[in-house]
């Protein structure tokens, strides 16, 4: 983070000036949710040439490259949203969660580059693993994501004879195989998931680190939380709960995907 805040790379500096609000204090959030998605979007939608050019070129052409990356990222979001909506509309997830404990599907029409993100969206929404495949000329290439309760990579390993290529880790994987193996893979994976994932594992749980009253919130505790940065996998941002609150006001953020509340606490 310190190195990125001091970067001399012309393209990165231009990107930071264009999309980051606090340009002097770039955070892990800025990297994970603002800069990296734009760099990745080109490869997901077209190819990685624009991202490479951003990091290797100088001068006025950088403005066009950044505009292209922004456009790719918006297109990626729209494609991701369309695939997710299609999946939700065409499947009974109440039944899938209850009986199969995993979602597996394929399509000739999906964009392969966003399937991992869509699978992550399904995991977040329904709390079950998801594996999605793009079908091309008799071959399947797919991405899987899982909950922290189910070792996706470990359980897929027992089906390795069905795959042409396979890799990943506990909560994510990439798979390629012949489409003729899909039915066998589908049935065996559902059998494995149903055996290993319990009903209680699919129930959403909201875990918090500490109960915090409004009177305890001050600059000192905020500074102490900041000392725990950078947050991410293995070091999640702390979460707090509180009680006896009244909503005074609220407004939506990010096209109504998030809401910010103004609260008053009694007592």
From TrEMBL:
Pfam families: DHHA1, RecJ_OB
InterPro entries (alphabetical): DHH_sf (IPR038763), DHHA1_dom (IPR003156), RecJ_OB (IPR041122), SSDNA_exonuclease_RecJ (IPR051673)
GO MF annotation: an example: hydrolase activity
Keyword Transferase: no
Domain DHHA1, first and last residues per copy: 101-193
Organism: marine sediment metagenome
Keyword Hydrolase part of the UniProt annotation: yes
Name under which the protein is recorded: DHHA1 domain-containing protein
Every RecJ OB domain range: 208-266
Alphabetized UniProt keyword annotations: Hydrolase
